[in-house]
Amino acid sequence: MNIYRSHVLICGGTGCTSSKSDKLQKEFQNLIQKKDLDKEVKVVRTGCFGLCEAGPIVIVYPEGSFYSQIKLEDVEEIVEEHLLKGVVVKRLLYKGAISEEAIKSIYEVDFYKKQERIALKNCGVISPEDIYEYIAFDGYMGLAKALTEMSPEEVIKVVTESGLRGRGGAGFPTGLKWNFAAKATGNEKYVLCNADEGDPGAFMDRSILEGDPHSVIEAMSLAGYAIGSNQGYVYVRAEYPIAVQRLQIAINQAREKGLLGKNILGTGFDFDMEIRLGAGAFVCGEETALIASIEGERGMPRNKPPFPANKGLWQKPSLINNVETYANIPQIMLKGVDWFKSIGTEKSSGTKVFALGGKIENTGLVEIPMGTPLRKVIYDIGGGIPNGKEFKAVQTGGPSGGCITADHLDTPIDFDSLVALGSMMGSGGMIVMDEDNCMVDIARFFLDFTVEESCGKCNPCREGTQRMLEILERITEGKGEVEDIDKLERLAKTIKDTSLCGLGQTAPNPVLSTLKYFRHEYEAHVIDKTCPAGQCKALLDYFITDKCKGCTKCARVCPSSCITGKVKEIHSINNKLCIKCGACMEACPFDAIILK
Amino acid sequence: MDTVIIKINDERVEVPNDFTILQAAKKMGIDIPTLCYDERLESHAACRMCVVEVEGARNLQTSCSLKVADGMEIKTHSERVIQARKDILDLLWANHPNDCLTCEKSGECKLQEYCYKYDVKETTFEGKRKNYEIDDSSPFFYNNQNKCINCGKCVRVCSELQHTNAIGFSERGFNTHVSTPFEIGIDNSVCVSCGNCVSVCPVGALMPKSKEKFRLWETKKVRTTCSYCGVGCQMDLLVKDNKVVGVQPANGPSNNGLLCVKGKFGFNFINHPDRLNKPLIKKDGQFVESSWEEAYGLIVEKVNNIKSEKGSEVFAGFTSARCTNEENYLFQKLFRAGIGTNSVDHCARL
């Protein structure tokens, strides 16, 4: 085996691949070969590093130098200076990796220093396409331990006692689920992995499959052993081509090495798995709709009970967990219950991966212990709100969740605290909003999403979400009435109370939670016909500021002749006649016309 | 059968443990409204009209799908339940043409019935409405999706009971509607025109192409056995002014509430002016109406003549699948014992 003096790690996540990290890899390999360094330096394409804001990311080890936003033309300099001469190229380092001229390694950067990585442990560390790299980081040790030293009951006991809860949304105790599936009677059982991640902006499951697919394979094999199943299916959306490709490579490698298939590790245990592609319907992340989709049926949820643990895929007992949940399990198996319980809070042990997005400096994936206060996530790790704007709220749980306001920034995040605040963990999307975000418009945005994604099976969700959206649209267009707020609330309650699946039952949450914390914004829209955040165009008026030079251009283009003023004097707009076409604003050469 | 004790509206009742709440309530004479429920079909739980309050459950539960459990406490008509049902009707109304004045389903429409029962007098929502072209390609029925409430009974009866799978749901969300694959129209699909979808439609979305104008309350239902074949399907003829204007399947032991195209739609011959009501005898090259006595007399006479001239073996009898087993039995008896030949056959033997 060749020992390399240096490793160049290039992010191969979807974000960095979109900014051509695949070409960076080729360029590095070319130049390294040209300089005759290919025996000394190894180039590895890893999974996502998490700080997508800084992509494409290149890390050079052993120093851990954190190069960000690397372009093709930068590669030569890194090879020449860093790899050949050993001088770090400061100009290309991530801005947070230099302080007072001292160079920090990636682990010392604030964004990473304050995280604790379990599910993302190998993401950005190993090559996901090389099973040996996974094995070198204790991969398949948990499975080996379970198969050779533990009974299925003992495996379930460990998962139960670890306190692991489902990372896909509702936080159901994983051990309990495994226990139900193990106790269910049936000659065939299935282990399913829900990789149909659909919350807008959430991509932790994709990153795990892209960066560490073997962790999911190992966990599913463990689950198969625990509940008595020999077949697994990973349901992953077709829009995740890199994840699908790497998972398939990983499955093939695991089969080759006898870690999937017949007689795993010579223990007599058989387990194999296949990928099933989803067509991108959000509702297929709901477990019963996912099962229907695997069966080849229309992706529509089925009423529960019966639960999948008793009647799941093809009516057989099935265990279904989310990608991130699985990714925790090999390490729980290896490091034990006490280790896992030492992280997080009493009722929510371990960590959670969040996808930070919206009005925040560091967008990307962060993994933090449960119980970390929101403030720490947004300010210490996320770097705060850009452009000196004020924090307004953060939406957690995507379209099923709700918003959390500045008053609750110090709440320790776990499953139960978020529910208590009227939101939910969801799959871990975290969209930060600042003073410029209109909360009615945010609710409208999420309802627009759920209307689009409702499967159409049950009445309250199919008809009700459409009506909620229409009311919200009216409000943001300035056509709302005071009664609309009560109507929204009543409808939201009924939809929550009567919908068939989790999509419908949680679809009204963004409305209820914005109504709870920002009712005054709704009232401003319907009573005063104004949008306090200045977002809802129909409620804004055009004004001419004192930048006006009196050139008369605006008055000449105005189709409703509502602009008056003498030449070389400041003009004014009669808002009663204005039709808000915006022609004046476009015509003004002095940027004197504003909307407010 | 094991039983459980539950409480519905504060009243204790003992029911089999595989009962749904809906079945238990029915046993007690409590009427829970349903739009998508059909006891012959897998529970769909989509209309949400049958929701009830179950003690300890976070959300309202659908009584059509939830099985009873010992000690369960259920409220079928609490304020919360009634408000939910009203809201659901309100939502359905908001996306429905509401043309009860001219709709032929009026009087038998479930949406109409429940809006009346639950005092939903108008919808409180405005906005988008369905706007589909009516599929009138089938010779037997219309598919008017503007009236559909997406209960899915038609789709499920077509796949679960009829096993034809001619119709399914197209598109998603608010645009979900019942259609043939690729919207090719009923007549171009694999539809066998059995009309079972029409029979289960709770609203006026799937309606027979009727030759007569009638209101359901003007008709009398006459239970009869379908005369087309020997299966013995039970059905109700809808009779207005002594004229058959429609057929509805009845739940007989041999048909489970289903009919085929003939039974469901093939009834216009009954009152057709060309239908023969009396036997015709050819006299001087012309068919002439006669009495049954004369006709039978002629048959007996001719049979006797031929038999005495040429023997019994020249006769052969062929009967119809429209006859019952009993009729077929009598027919072969007539030929074997009466006429004396074993040459008897039946059109459905092949």
Description:
- The complex is a heterodimer of chains A (596) and B (350).
- With 596 residues, chain A is an alpha/beta fold.
- Chain A folds into five domains: 6-109, Glutaredoxin (3-Layer(aba) Sandwich); 131-341, Rossmann fold, CATH 3.40.50; 351-434, Ubiquitin-like (UB roll), CATH 3.10.20.600; 439-528, NADH-ubiquinone oxidoreductase 51kDa subunit, iron-sulphur binding domain (de novo design (two linked rop proteins)); 541-595, Alpha-Beta Plaits (2-Layer Sandwich).
- Helices cover 39% and strands 16% of the residues of chain A.
- Chain A has 23 helices and 20 strands.
- In chain A, strands 9-10-8-7-11 form a five-stranded mixed sheet, sandwiched between helices. Chain A has a five-stranded mixed sheet with strand order 13-12-16-14-15, sandwiched between helices.
- In chain A, β9 and β10 form a beta hairpin.
- The N and C termini of chain A lie far apart (67 Å).
- The model of chain A has no long low-confidence stretch (mean pLDDT 93).
- With 350 residues, chain B is of the alpha+beta class.
- Among the domains of chain B are: 3-77, Roll (Ubiquitin-like (UB roll)); 217-275, Single Sheet (N-terminal domain of TfIIb), CATH 2.20.25.90; 281-346, no CATH class.
- Helices cover 24% and strands 19% of the residues of chain B.
- Chain B is built from eight helices and 16 strands.
- Chain B has a five-stranded mixed sheet, sandwiched between helices. A three-stranded antiparallel sheet of chain B has the order 10-11-12. Chain B has a two-stranded antiparallel ribbon with strand order 6-9.
- Chain B is elongated and about 90 Å long.
- Chain B starts with a strand and ends with a strand.
- Classes of the chains: A alpha/beta (596), B alpha+beta (350).
- At the A-B interface, α17, α18 and α19 of A face α2 of B.
